[in-house]
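TICKET: design request
STATUS: open
ATTACHED STRUCTURE:
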């Protein structure tokens, strides 16, 4: 299942690529999880290497660091280093604040042409990989309203925000901090791969690219016809 929490980063140390408020929030959740009789395996993902470093220092220098590793199999990753890694519970630290937002350097600014541009293909892949590492639950930790996220990442976050609402008739149970389902609610992996934001991104980009090509074709054809008529 998918959960969102907006933290208050005002007065905390933040940069374009680090957010201490989000790191503190995740640490507090890990301290709760590690006390469960059967805690889930946990991964933390962030778009920025600097936030990965901050999280790693905060979590692995903590007095409970050994428990984090042994009981939770904790791993802190970026969207570029999490390929092949899976955990039952994923925390996703978005980092961006209203005053400092560099996410469009990591993810596609626009979905238009994302299929054609090599650089944008990599950025779209980051969306796919980052959101498909959770086996049971993904917890998005953010520091500004979801409606204020721009570009491809904003599209992805708002897409996922709708999923719990669409499943409101299903019997959903929250067991501590791990969402589990007994009827009809897809896991984050299934939601991404089957409902498929990833596919919708490619469909959207491909259709816009195809439309532009058709427009260029008809524009070119019209210009040739005008020149032909004038020559006659």
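STATUS: resolved
RESOLUTION: sequence designed for all positions
ATTACHED SEQUENCE:
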């Amino acid at each position: 299942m998918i959960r969102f929490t907006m933290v208050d980063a005002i007065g905390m140390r933040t940069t374009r690529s680090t957010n201490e408020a989000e790191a503190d929030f995740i640490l507090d959740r890990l301290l709760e999880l590690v006390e469960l009789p059967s805690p889930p395996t946990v991964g933390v993902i962030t778009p920025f290497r600097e936030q990965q470093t901050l999280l790693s220092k905060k979590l692995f220098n903590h007095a409970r660091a050994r428990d984090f590793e042994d009981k939770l199999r904790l791993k802190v990753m970026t969207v570029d280093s999490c390929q092949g890694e899976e955990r039952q519970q994923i925390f996703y630290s978005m980092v961006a604040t209203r005053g400092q937002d560099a996410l469009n350097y990591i993810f596609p600014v626009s979905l238009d042409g994302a299929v054609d541009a090599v650089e944008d293909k990599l950025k779209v892949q980051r969306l796919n990989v980052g959101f498909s590492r959770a086996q049971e639950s993904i917890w998005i930790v953010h520091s500004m309203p979801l409606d204020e996220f721009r570009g491809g990442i904003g599209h992805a976050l708002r897409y996922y925000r709708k999923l719990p609402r669409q499943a409101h008739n299903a019997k959903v149970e929250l067991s501590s901090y791990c969402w589990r389902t007994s009827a009809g609610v897809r896991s984050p992996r299934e939601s991404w791969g089957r409902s498929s934001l990833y596919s919708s991104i490619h469909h959207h980009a491909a259709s816009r690219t195809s439309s532009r090509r058709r427009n260029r074709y008809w524009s070119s054809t019209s210009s040739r016809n005008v020149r032909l008529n004038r020559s006659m």
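CLOSING REMARK: The first helix runs from residue 20 to 33. The chain is about 45% helix and 15% strand.
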